[in-house]
Amino acid sequence: REYQVNEDVADALKNYRAAVGAGARVIIGPLTRDAVTALAFGEPVPVPTLALNIPDQTGRTPENLFMLSLQVESEARQAAQLAYREKRRNALIVSGGNAVQRRLQSAFAGEFSRLGGTVLAEGIAPDPARLKAAIRPEADMVFLALNHDEARAVCAYLGAIPAYATSSVYAGERGPLAAFDLANVSFVDMPWLIEPDHPAVMGYPRPEPGSAEFERLYALGIDAWRIAQLLLAGERSLKLDGVTGELTLGPGGIIDRTLRAGRFIDGKARLAEPGTREPAR
């Protein structure tokens, strides 16, 4: 049974209560962060519920509430872990001005520093003149907290410095020119997009061709359905080799997604193994 909701938190909670009242044994949703926050901090959660976002704050997690999301902060932290595994120790961070990019910047800087790396400069604007002025000899990597088009424009000015990013730089197959502009950029993303021969990925039909953003939401729906089946069967360990990543239940009801490392090589976004970086062109 589906319940159509809008952006209003009260509407989401009203429909959540309606689903509970109708006898739902498992509920998937809500989707917005505000609605999930309201559910986590003020609403009874009497049945297993898989929310497709995470709350704004921590401190209360109802026993029946589980959360799976495409959280950008998690991607940035995993990009930092990938860079550190590949022996990068001195980072520059290029970031645009929007809120999501600032969140990527902050999450990468925090994780990279925690691991033992040094952030030499952050918040560098994706502007050629400012970028050239910010590049320092001791920098051995750049983190691109940018979208696909911004990253393409910036890469022309990086020279031989290796670049790392999140899935925001991968907008799907847009022809060889786009991928060549991003040559040798490493990023993290879900198996659905960069590991087509993954057993779980091969088991599901593809939607009509669309944007990479739509594909990611489609994949999230697949894993949400699979987790809902586990919840319905009484399973609570929630470990799954999913199409959005390797899924494991972490603290506070949040389901962690371990992503795959990808790299733009020879005009394609390919699955990459740590330590297999191509020579800089």
Tell me the series of helices and strands, N- to C-terminal. HEHEEHEHEHEHEHEHHHEEEEE
Q: Spans of 5+ residues with little confidence (pLDDT < 50)?
A: 274-281
- Percentage of helical residues? 25-40%
Largest sheet: 7 strands, mixed
Give the DSSP E fraction (strand runs of 2 or more residues).
15-25%
Q: For the largest sheet, list the strands in their spatial order.
A: 5-4-6-7-8-12-13
Class computed from helices, strands and strand pairing? alpha/beta
Summarize this entry quickly:
This protein is an alpha/beta fold and 281 residues long.
Characteristics:
281 residues, 7-stranded mixed β-sheet, globular, 37% helix, disordered C terminus, alpha/beta, 3-stranded parallel β-sheet, 19% strand
Walk me through what this model shows.
By secondary structure, the chain is α/β, with parallel strands linked by helices. Helices cover 37% and strands 19% of the residues. The chain is built from ten helices and 13 strands. The chain has helices at residues 9-21, 33-42, 72-85, 99-115, 128-134, 148-155, 176-181, 191-194, 199-202, 212-232, and strands spanning 27-28, 49-51, 65-67, 90-95, 118-124, 141-145, 163-165, 185-189, 240-241, 246-249, 255-258, 260-265, 268-271. The chain has a seven-stranded mixed sheet, with helices on both faces. A three-stranded parallel sheet has the order 1-2-3, sandwiched between helices. Strand 7, helix 7 and strand 8 (185-189) form a beta-alpha-beta unit. Helix 1 (9-21) packs across helix 2 (33-42) and helix 3 (72-85) packs parallel to helix 4 (99-115). It is globular and about 60 Å long. It starts with 8 loop residues before the first helix and ends in a 10-residue tail after the last strand.
